[in-house]
Design brief:
Layout (H helix, E strand, L loop, with lengths): L1 E4 L9 H9 L5 E7 L11 H10 L3 E7 L3 H11 L3 E5 H18 L3 E6 L17 E5 L14 H14 L5 E5 L4 H10 L3 E4 L1 H4 L3 H9 L1
Parallel strand pairs: 1-8, 2-3, 3-4, 4-5, 5-6, 6-7, 7-8
Helix pairs in contact: 2-3, 3-4
The chain binds D-xylitol-5-phosphate and zinc ion.
The site of D-xylitol-5-phosphate (DX5) has 22 residues, from strand 2, strand 8 and helix 7.
Length: 214
């Protein structure tokens, strides 16, 4: 299991201290929720914040673009230090998604594609070979602290089955409402990368990460 704490929930008045705790927590990735106030009704951070994290941490920088124009923002966040760029199928559509995945790979980074709770995973079936990861949103994107939507479990099972049948090796990431209980459910369904925001930062970071690893 890879744990990717979402820095959306971090206490920004204690940034360096919280990042050192993350570095020592056993988490391998850090999850950055980039929101543009248009694709989702919330605004978060730009590339300079990611650059600051890169100075403080060597963890794998997992950038989740919740933006209407992922083609424009992908390069900006790669330049700032992203290792993985995940963008939304709903923002790109199939053709642009493939082109953007190829561009991200040409820049030496990994590419992920995400679907919102209302989107049928079927739209991703033919796109899977172009990506390193699929991100199943288990809450409506935009805000931390929401309750896990159990309907995401079937989506994870279906995607894992397609990935296995196609002989692909790719991650399934789940984002939203992850805690020790829901982590177990999504792991059993076939997810291998867990994003967790409020659960991690409301308690001891290292203990929270360990409790999610299973
Ligand atoms: C929601 C974000 C999530 C969020 C998860 O739009 O994509 O990454 O930070 O937060 P929790 O773990 O609090 O549900
Ligand atoms: Zn996210």
């Amino acid at each position: 299991m890879i744990i990717s704490p979402s820095v959306l929930a971090l206490d920004y008045s204690r940034l360096p201290e919280q990042v050192s705790e993350l570095n020592a927590s056993g988490a391998q990735w850090l999850h950055f929720d980039v929101m543009d106030g248009h694709f989702v009704p919330n605004l978060t951070f730009g590339p300079d914040i990611l650059k600051a994290f890169c100075k403080l941490s060597n963890l794998y920088m997992d950038v989740h673009l919740m933006v209407s124009d992922p083609v424009f923002f992908a390069d900006i966040f790669i330049d700032a230090g992203a290792d993985m760029i995940t963008f939304h199928y709903e923002a790109a559509g199939a053709e642009k998604a493939v082109q953007l995945a190829e561009h991200i790979h040409a820049r030496g980074k990994q590419a992920g594609i995400s679907i919102k709770p209302a989107t049928d995973p079927e739209v991703l079936k033919d796109l899977l070979p172009y990506f390193d990861m699929v991100l199943v949103m288990s809450v409506e994107p935009g805000f931390g602290g929401q309750a896990f939507m159990p309907a995401s479990l079937d989506k994870i099972r279906t995607l894992r089955q397609w990935i296995n049948e196609a002989g692909l090796s790719m991650h399934i990431q789940v984002d939203g409402g992850i805690n020790a209980e829901t982590a177990k459910l999504v792991r059993e369904a076939g997810a291998d990368v867990l994003v967790a925001g409020s659960y991690v930062f409301k308690r001891n970071i290292g203990e929270a990460v360990r409790s999610l690893e299973g």
